[in-house]
Design brief:
Layout: H1 3-30, H2 58-74, H3 80-86, H4 89-95, H5 135-140, H6 146-154, H7 156-159, H8 173-185
Helix pairs in contact: 3-8, 4-8, 6-8
């Protein structure tokens, strides 16, 4: 085997390795919370019933979970009613920008990668005939009330194992409360907020 052939083989192996590495790094960066170009604080995506797929490294997920647990210990736990009483729908609209890549919110709006979210609060899960929801979401049944949406938005894959939603969740409770109040406002008859406790 000549050195030219060996160089071609090694070059092909290096190129394949580079492609493999990029295919793991790019999605992780796109879907990392807090990244302007992905599904994090400043971007746009969710599934309140969304179907996509993202790959997350187990080590990073564990480290992120540990960091969030430490951060959660620093914040006093408020009831959902108390969080929603302090929530700001205008800020929730800004938080929703991370959802807007995959969702629309206009009445009778079209689905994107995720379903239209007009009237989602108080509606049945997997309520749109025009959207192909995951079997996991369909089998869950029930309605999207503010409490279940709060849990889902905090950790979509933890709340509905088997969901195809490519979103890590809205980890900050105040942002989640703002988003919930905003989503609740997107209806002909918004649901009443639970009383603060």
């Amino acid at each position: 085997m000549s050195s030219f052939e060996l160089n071609k083989i090694l070059g092909a192996c290096l190129f394949a390795g580079l492609i493999a590495m990029v295919s793991f790094v790019v999605p992780k960066e796109l879907f990392k919370e807090g990244h302007e170009g992905g599904h994090g604080s400043g971007h746009e995506a969710t599934e309140l019933a969304h179907e996509g797929a993202a790959t997350e490294g187990a080590g990073e997920a564990a480290a992120e979970s540990a960091g969030e647990a430490a951060g959660a210990a620093e914040e006093p736990a408020l009831s959902l009613g108390a969080m929603l009483a302090k929530a700001d729908a205008a800020n929730g609209e800004k938080v929703f920008k991370k959802c807007a890549t995959c969702h629309t919110v206009e009445k009778d709006g079209k689905n994107k990668v995720g379903p239209n979210l007009w009237g989602v609060v108080g509606n049945h899960r997997a309520h749109l005939e025009s959207f192909a929801f995951s079997d996991a979401l369909k089998s869950l049944g029930g309605q999207w009330d503010l409490a279940s949406l709060n849990e889902f938005l905090a950790n979509p894959k933890g709340y509905i194992p088997g969901t195809k939603m490519a979103f890590a969740g809205v980890k900050k409770p105040t942002d989640r409360a703002d988003l919930l109040v905003y989503l609740n406002s997107l209806a002909d008859s918004p649901a009443p907020l639970p009383p603060p406790e």
